[in-house]
Amino acid sequence: MVDILHRVGVKDASPAAVYDALTTPEGLAGWWTEDTRGSADVTGGVVEFRFPPIGGFDMEVLEVEPPERVRWRVSDGPDEWIGTTVTWDLRQDGDYTIVLFSHEGWKEPVEFMHHCSTKWASYLLSLKSLVETGEGAPAPGDVQISDWH
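Given the sequence above, the corresponding structure tokens read:
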């Protein structure tokens, strides 16, 4: 198994502010994809993310620990994603909330995983921007890196 790992600091923001951007449909739509719906703030909830025209993902909420942790399992989407987990661990460090991100459980480091690692990095910067400035860059207005979007 292989994992995607990232770390980003969100300046002048509390872990609670970042947590809200990860657990509300409005917050998620503000940095990941505008086409977001579901219950991201309760264990057992399902969140649906769509990225027209390429498809989307359904995530089952495995864990929410306000304001420190959010964890999902991919229940629907590309084959490579099914059964993987996505986790955000949040902690305060001076003027920053540190976001430790992981997308764990990939069976092998296929080319699509490389693509997804880059996209996750761009979306984490979108999350940072949303919380710091009030404006993220969610799909469809995100950075396009290839024909996979």
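The mean pLDDT is 96. Try to locate this feature in the token string yourself.
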